[in-house]
Amino acid sequence: MVSSLRNFLLDNRGLYLGDGDGAQEDDEYSSSSLARDKIDAGAASHISTCQGLIRGLRSDVRSAAAAGEAGGEMRARHLEAVCTLLEAALKSACSVYAELKAIRVQKEVEFQRLSRLEFKARKGSFSIERGEKSFLFLTPCL
To answer: Under 8 Å CB-to-CB from 40, ≥6 apart: which residues?
Structure first.
């Protein structure tokens, strides 16, 4: 299950980061945004499921060890180590997800910043043009 999360994230990396054709039309942006949201939901679901399964396994191991079931202490230590390894693998997969999400947020912030700069540049050029026109109307004719 943990490896399926990692594979899911790596398989959908290009779609998640928007590394497609490079076209930035509103319809395409909104559809890719929906796809990203679906990937977020899928990753969150995988993470939650994996955490629950690992917690359940660890609980079963501890209750079996407390009950003194067959296999003894060595088996209990082995299963505890398996749980620890599964948690480490899940943490690694979560770091891939966190990295993708950070890149996504960084790209969105950059896009918004550039949009604001473009708006200010357009607004500024309009003000300059308007200012020049008003200046021309205020100068006396000789």
So the answer is: 101
**Whole-number Å distance between alpha carbons of 22 and 47:** 30
What is the DSSP annotation of the chain?
-HHHHHHHHHHTHHHHHT-SS----HHHHHHHHHHHHHHHHHHHHHHHHHHHHHHHHHHHHHHHHHHT-TTHHHHHHHHHHHHHHHHHHHHHHHHHHHHHHHHHHHHHHHHHHHHHHHHHHHHHHHHHHHHHHHHHHHSPP-
Domain enclosing residue 69, as ranges: 2-103
How many domains would you assign to the chain? 1
- 18 in a domain, yes or no? yes
Please, what are the averages of pLDDT over each run of 10 residues along the chain (142 residues)?
85 77 44 81 92 93 78 83 94 91 88 83 60 46 46
